[in-house]
Structures are given as C-alpha cells and as structure tokens.
Amino acid sequence: MQNINSSILVGNTRGDNVLRFDAYTGNYLGEFITSGLGGLEDPDTLLFGPDGNGDGKSDLYIASRSEVGGSSILRFDGQTGNFIDVFVGDNPDTALDESGGLVRPYGIAYGPDGNFYVASFLSDQILRYNGSTGEFIDVFAQGNGQVGGLNGPNGLLFINNSLYVTTQGSVAKVNPDTGEAFPDFSAGLSSQVLRYNSLIAGATPTVFATPQPSPDSFGFVSLLGLALGEDGDLYVSDFANDIRRYDLESGELVDTLSTNYTTETPPSNNFIGSLAFAPNGDLLTVGFDVTTEQGAILKYDTESSSPVNPFQVLVPTNPVLERPVGITFFPTESQLVFGTPGNDELIAGVDLEAVVDIVFTGGGSDEVDLAIKSHASDNRAFLGSGNDIIYVNNSDRAFGGSGDDIFDATDGKGDSRMSGGSGHDTFYLGSVDRALGGDGNDKFFVQSGGDNLISGGAGADHFFIANAELPDTANTILDFEIGIDVISINGAAALGISAATLLLHEMSGNTEISFGDKTLAILNGVTNLDINLIKFDVFI
C-alpha cells in the first residue's frame, strides 16, 4: 500500500548504488539502483528531472565519477531504477570532450531557461547543457581562485530565477605527473553561498553567506546541500556539521540546526551530506561516522512551517549506508482512493498511504481517519453525501458535501482546510486551521489550540470560543452576525468567566473578546456587541 511519496532515496558514495528507505519509519526498503549499474560511481547528487524514456514520468539524474574524461551525469528510470543512458558524458572514441570538460560533477539543477546546469567541482566551473539532449552549450561560470569567487562549487539550486551555489573554498589544480585533478586549500578561501542573478555566461555572483565554523565541526566550513523550506527560507547543509537557515531576502542567519549525532560534546565524529524536505515539511539529512564511514539519516520535525531542533535519528548508524551524501524524495504523486455507495471506513496506514492522496468516499455515512498516521499530510478528501466524519492531520483539504458531517482537527498538526458544504456540520478545532461551515446551522468547538480562521457561512451558527479550558491563542471568526449567530463559553463557571469578567475591546472595526490578559476570540467586522449576548455553560 506504500506509495513513493513515503520513500527517500540515498546516494551511497562508497557503495556506488542508490538505496531506498521509508521516510517516516526509517525502514530499509532495498536497493533502488544496484551497485555500478550503467557505470555508476560516487553517486553524491540525485535529482529528479524530465522524462527521459517516454513513459511520462520524471526520471532520476545522478552525478557520477570523478576523473577527467570519465565524469558524467547518468539517467535512470524514476519508477524502477533501470538504467536509461549517459545524459552528459565524454565519448572516448572521439577527440572532442563532449562533456565540455566536466570533472567531478556535484550539484545539478534545471534552470528557468530549460537548460541543465552542473557544478564541475574539480575544474571550478558551472557547465551548461541542453536540457533535452544533454549536449554541452557553454561554461556558465568559471572560478578564478579569488575571494568571493567560484571556489570548489558544490550544490546548485534555482530560486526565483536566481542560481544559488555552495562553494567549498578550494581551488582546482592538476597534478602534473598523474594528470589527476585535486582541490587545493592553501589559499585559505572561505566556504560560501553565492548567488547569480543573471543567466548570462560569465556573470559575476554576489556573496549570499559566509558562515563561521560550527562548534561541532573540526574547525572548518564546507557548505554542501541547498533546499528551500515551506517558510520561504534557504537551508544549507555544512559537510563539517550543522544545517543553517537563512532569510532568502536579506541573507541573515535565522537558525542553526544541530547535526551532531555521534558525540555528547563537541566536536562531533560525523560529517553531513545533503538535505531534502518531505511532503509534510519535515527536513531530512544524511551523515556518516568519520571513523567507519557508516551512515545514518536524521529527521527534523516542523513547527509553523519550519524544521526545529532537536533531530530524530530516523536511521541509526547502519553498515548498509556507506559514506552517504545524496538524498532526495520522489516527486509527489497523488493516489486515488475510492469508497462505495455504502458506509465506508478509510484509515490512514491501512486503506491509504495518506500522503498527497485524493479520497472520494461516495454515498453513505463514512469515516476517514487521517490523523491516526503521524506523517499523513496534504490529502484531499471529498466526503460526498451522508453523515460523515473526518479526522484531519497536516495540510489536508476536506470537503463535506451534503449531510451533517463532523470535522475533527484535535490531533491534527495544522494548516488544514475544512469545508462543511450543506447540512448542519460540527467542527472540533485544533491549531492553525481554516474552517468553513457552509450552508446550514453549524457548530464550532474551540479547544486548547488556537489561531484558527472560522467562517460560519449561511445559517445560524454557534461558536464555542472556549470549552473548559482557554485556547492557547485567539481564534478569528470572519462572519459573525449579531442576532443570527451565537457565541458561547462552556465551563465558564470553573474558569471564573462571566459577563462581569469578560472584556470586549473594539479595534480597527473588529471586536476582541478577552478574559484577563488572554484574547479568546476576534470577531472581524463586528462592533457594538452586547456582552450579554454571550452565553455561558450551554448544554446541547
């Protein structure tokens, strides 16, 4: 029943293969690409890109090998892991280097111009290729060994038509005796994040960030992976330890996520690879023990759309992970789940994966439980006719249709939208959700969370703004109608709430209902509310 939305792929640098794991349980699901398939070596960077074999599905592009003349970008079937072709590489039977001089590819990205960009780490270049054929176009950027330059380019990421690049702070050189390229650190250059605001070849980058070494590091910085968070901030992994979060507009450091999973006190005994965001917003990264090179996978839960400390060791140190660096999620694909004309029970983890799924329950009185599975998120559920109940989780969309439906966000993680449709619906609210009653006389029960947006819609609606406990933060009612809708507080006597202790405060055409120093609810567009209209300890 598991779909690809719940899987991650990890590039096994020393194993020359790509492994698949369950992104939420950490269970090892086997090899996705077998060792050495298609000539695969050192698969440090994984990128899902355009269809390469005509099946209409996104395929997997992988940076491979490190030597002059052998470095390449290989392409694999994104569903099966089967080898497709060498997308970028040199033909040894010709005098021309068709790769354009690619040496130790690392970062790869498709640009807004449709072209394919590759960081050539051991030539200090970013090379540009035709996005459809892989044919070399030109050298987009060239390092010069100077401060603020392209010194050891690693990760690539396009955001809003700008290219962000991590650099290691090294200068590429060639051993005159062996012809082998190597990184030279003798110039003492900094590891940085650069930004190119133009796609014209030879454009000069600006320096976005130049961080100092992490206390958990071995005294150096080596920036690697790049990812854009749901919060709009830029996340950058440091091979030497830590993930740094930057404000995308100002470049200011917002937060630092610890990645030391091997020691109790600094420094750590592990390095860190790239990073990737899950469909539910959680952040994952890979790392490996410096001594054994055996790897692990870390996961950061999300609060208010941002990953936070501390991490969870999703996959403890495991010999199957051999110096892992690359990590990616499959492109999200929605699975269709159907009920019957009768009464259905659809449970996340049993009847559906509940990650970006689309559910149609049909007729009957149905139950859909998305909250039972901790990582369920981004689902769309259409409940149809009948008296239905749904338990939402994270960023879900639920549509009630006809009937008297129940929407329960008690165990949810927020950012869901619940729409009752017609009928007399009941909502049990959590935190940071949106609830729309629609037609009918609807009831909304606030619980310990808050920061919900509530719209009753048509009909005489009943808003219970506190129920035996105060909400953590105020909820906003968007369409309260005096004389039609009702506001109630249950458990008021035990809380010490009465008409004498409640406060009404009008501000900017809205009314705030407060008790003590806590605002319970905000009524948008409402003034001249009579406090005696608020009901206490209503039994329904």
TrEMBL record:
It comes from the Bacteria. SUPFAM superfamilies: beta-Roll, NHL repeat. This is NHL repeat containing protein. It comes from Anabaena cylindrica (strain ATCC 27899 / PCC 7122).
